[in-house]
Amino acid sequence: MSNLPATSQELALRIRQTALTMCYQKKASHLGGAFSAADMLAVLYHEVMAARPAEPRWAERDRLYYSKGHACTALYAVLAERGYFPRADLDTFTDDGSLLTSHVNHKVAGVELSTGSLGHALSVACGVALAGLRQRKTWHSYVIVSDGELDEGSNWEAILFAPHHRLDNLTLVVDYNKIQSFGSTAEVLNLDPLADKFKAFGWDTIEVDGHNHAALAAALAKRGRTPGRPRAVIAHTIKGKGVDFMEGQLAWHYKSPNQDQYQQAMAQLQVQA
């Protein structure tokens, strides 16, 4: 059963607490990227997306394609909070035979696409959005990509495709925390000026503080869109957001917290409640 928090801010905090516990208990990684995406997930599932957790395949649901499948703990956490599956199932994360695998698994209720092979989800979402547009459906497709995966050429094919086909039922959110697996995005393959690139490709482009819930809600809303143009939301975020010794640190792309780090991080998160 869902016991959804009263606000999206409270939901984001629960996402971080749950992701932290999952990574600690199972010695898993990608916590920094889960923390940077927590606020956008909270706003989508609390404020924006049409969904029926008791009917995960409801035909009129809005779709989320979570491309950064390595940061799966944040998505699993929000789905459990929304009631797609029991919170107790989170304890099986990465266990042999569990559906809650270390990269996002489409067999989990509420998950549209298995992800983790970076650069695939946006292309799939474009196809789904095009089908929805041609069938005159009212649902919307959302995609969350990591900034590092924009190094993949397949994304830029999709970024060309969406405006050409006037996919105004599609929203792309870039989790722009500016750190990828082996360095900063500026060092590995510089993306800037990122917003200008999307604008040049024909997207309705908005830059926001990716931890400001009001700004995210306004950018992600389905009303007030420019007809015929997909929307790109460049969400400036902080890797490891919410825990001071994780924020902006490359090590927390892969690192798993030890007991002391877990306790310190949880204490910081609890103070924010």
From TrEMBL:
Q: Which cofactor does it need?
A: thiamine diphosphate
Keyword check for Glycosyltransferase: no
Q: Record's InterPro entries?
A: THDP-binding, Transketolase_N
The source's domain of life comes to Bacteria
Alphabetically list the UniProt keywords. Answer: Thiamine pyrophosphate
Domain Transketolase N-terminal: residue ranges? 9-265
User: Which parts of the chain are coiled coil?
Assistant: none
Alphabetical list of CDD domains matching this protein:
TPP_TK
What are the TM regions of this chain, as residue ranges?
none
Instruction: Give the UniProt family note.
Output: Belongs to the transketolase family.
Q: What is this protein called?
A: Transketolase
State the organism of origin. Duganella lactea
Q: What is the lineage of its organism?
A: Bacteria, Pseudomonadati, Pseudomonadota, Betaproteobacteria, Burkholderiales
